[in-house]
Amino acid sequence: MKKLFIIMFLSFFLLNIWNLSAYNNSEKLAADFLSYKDIINAQENAINYELDKKITRREMAKVTLNLSWKLVEDKCSWKFSDITELDWWCKYAESWLKYNYFAKNLTFNPNNNISKIEALKVIMKARWIEKIETTDWREWYVIAAKKYWLLESSFTDYDIQAKRWWIFLIGQRSIEYSKTDEDINLIIDLLNI
What we know:
Blueprint: H1 2-20, H2 25-36, H3 57-68, H4 90-98, H5 116-126, H6 137-147, H7 164-176, H8 182-191
């Protein structure tokens, strides 16, 4: 019994250590930055950002629209068969459609996770970052994202589901390298860059 208790305690302790180190400090800072900009909800405890989890389409719709600073009307006209007026994400999903962040479909699939390439594409569209045309449309976005410092390195695992920390880093970088952000422009002016 004593061995079982020790094993359970150690397992719980090691699991908590692993959960704390599943992301790095820059990823947590990206989440804090986005919460400061009112793009995501602020969390006192870093674990509540759920940085190592995947993101759903409904969450990504809200993040994207908040990154774009475009108007989101607080109404829903049932353009998708799997969303009702009572769903908090309905206004974001329909705004995604309104601003051409994705093609019109019968369903929105709000509980599905979003792939890395889909996330990159909608963030770039939301932040008005132009793609670079090549033979593969997915490569268009990756090349442009590297050029504009959204990504440190290329990727080809396009259909892998995106993690929240990855999206938050790209979102932060899309604002930092934008000349339209008032806070960033103020910092640049103060530093005389």
